[in-house]
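User: Show me a protein chain along with its predicted structure.
Assistant: Here is one chain, sequence first, then structure tokens.
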Amino acid sequence: MVADRFSDVNRDRVTLCRSRRTHMRRFFILASAVTLIASSAVAADTTNRTFDATYTATITNIPADAGVLDIWIPLPRARSAQGITDVKIDSPYQWQRFTEKEFGNEYAVAKIPAPQAGELVVKVSFRGTRSAIAMEKIAGVTPSKSEIARALRADRMVTLSPRVKKLSDEIVAGKTTTVDKALAIYEYVMTTMKYDKTTPGWGNGDTERACDIKAGNCSDFHSLFISLARSQKIPARFVIGFPLPQGDGRIPSYHCWAEFYVEGKGWIPVDASDASKSSDPAVRAMLFGNLPPNRVEFTMGRDLVLTPATSEPLNFFIYPRVETKGKPVGTASLSLEVRDVKGGTNIAAGGDVH
């Protein structure tokens, strides 16, 4: 039955996904030559960036007769490359804070009467410090067996279909190490995918769509990367947050990237979508294994199961989830206001939510 499903039509799709392989091979040679230089440049940037930020979620089109709304909002949390403190929710309602089990994501939940105007705004303020990540300085970690198993498992839209496996085998042909295989996959995604937010269907992080049309935003780029990596038994996971402006400013949307695991080394970051926007080989090489301190992480993972439960697992969690009577309602938009803190220092993990 599987063979019937992935018939001639899907073999044609594989051909689409294999396009530009010649260009990718040429880039592999050039990028490999500058990887050490680019990585060293990031490693030299040890300055932490400290900032005050306000996450604003605006939910519109809420039915006036919706009654009581159940709302889940993501919260930033401290991880290895960032510290978070002073998390406060600007709201007159009572919020409860929870931690999701699989990835340790933090979030808050409240019950709020539906506004008669049909619009609700929730603001979360916090102070953060973000550090650059350099591949050669990543501290070794040993994930639990459950973490590894989760990072190898398919998600609803991050698939492990036969055509994805076949494409992955072709991309990594001749590569023997985990890093070399991941680099080949990264360069394939970076050079094959087009950053595009005009074609309907973008932004869901759909691997099969990415293979079909080779276009989308950061979630589509990194869903494809994760699927291809997992097809090679390389644990990989999805990370989402916001980019940070050069100085003070407002960011109107989220950004996401991916991480893959190397035994004895740890979780290695990649940002294929940002790399695809640059024509500089050094920047493209740098964004494999290294990240400048120009982002803040909120949550990790796909198909997230929260408590109290949403009506279905969340594809990813950066937007607020709003439901009434077990059904999602409203249309959400996001922004992040950032103001640099002069003379900021490292921030320890923790912080209360109000």
